[in-house]
Design brief:
The protein is an alpha/beta fold. Helices cover about 45% and strands about 15% of the residues.
Length: about 230
């Protein structure tokens, strides 16, 4: 590991925990959104990464969504936050148990706005109840329907069906977004090359009705020409 990478990793650890503890004291959703956004901006600036948002006009301000995004790198939530910067859309991330307990991300995930998904549990009723409570409070839900980071050479891996149940149970329209840039490779470049500036592109898709019976993954592919 080179010195530049060590320096960035140390800074990221400090920043993530600093904002994680700040978020613990914040209850109001839009203030929480503002602080999450500030965190994303600071960390991406340090990485010399900017974000280009395409079709931002498709966002309807103040609307609740089930936002779905592809997932190739650990900075993807930050990219999504910046895509929603000029809206009042506040969402809770569906987060795996591993992230809740992570020494790097745990404090931030628990305090930043998340619903815990514990795949080791045989029954999922508690998870869906937690989601419903948060939706009733006015929050959107953000999820990576692939279920894990896509480390393959494919642009997209198979969507898990759980996201569809969330949409149906809570009558949430589905908002597809697509991070066109390979974020894992972009992060690797930032960590290994000190002075390289990069732009990550994210696109906002067309809203899909929660009652739509078509294959959402096929719609997603068609929408973004994948």
């Amino acid at each position: 590991m080179n010195f530049h990478k060590i320096k960035l990793a140390t800074y990221a650890l400090f920043l993530t925990n600093y904002y994680g503890f700040r978020l613990k004291k914040i209850a109001e959703p839009l203030e929480k959104k503002r602080v999450r956004l500030e965190y994303a901006q600071r960390l991406l600036k340090k990485l010399k990464i900017s974000v280009e948002v395409k079709n931002r006009e498709k966002l309807i301000d103040d609307k609740q969504y089930l936002l779905i995004s592809n997932h190739r790198g650990i900075i993807d939530p930050l990219i999504v936050e910046l895509a929603l910067e000029k809206s009042n859309i506040f969402g809770l991330w569906i987060s795996k148990k591993e992230l809740y307990n992570s020494p790097f991300f745990g404090v931030f995930v628990r305090n930043g706005g998340a619903v815990l998904l514990d795949r080791e549990k045989s029954q999922m009723g508690g998870f869906f109840s937690d989601v419903k409570v948060e939706v009733k409070k006015g929050s959107s839900i953000f999820i990576f329907p692939e279920g894990t980071r896509n480390k393959s050479e494919e642009s997209l891996i198979e969507f898990k069906e759980g996201f569809r149940i969330i949409a149906l149970k809570n009558r949430l329209p589905i908002l597809p977004v697509y991070i066109r840039t390979h974020t894992d490779k972009a992060l690797g470049t930032s960590l290994n090359k000190k002075n390289v500036e990069q732009t990550i592109s994210i696109e906002i898709g067309d809203e899909i009705d929660y009652k739509d019976k078509r294959n959402i993954q096929e719609l997603y592919k068609e929408m973004f020409n994948i």
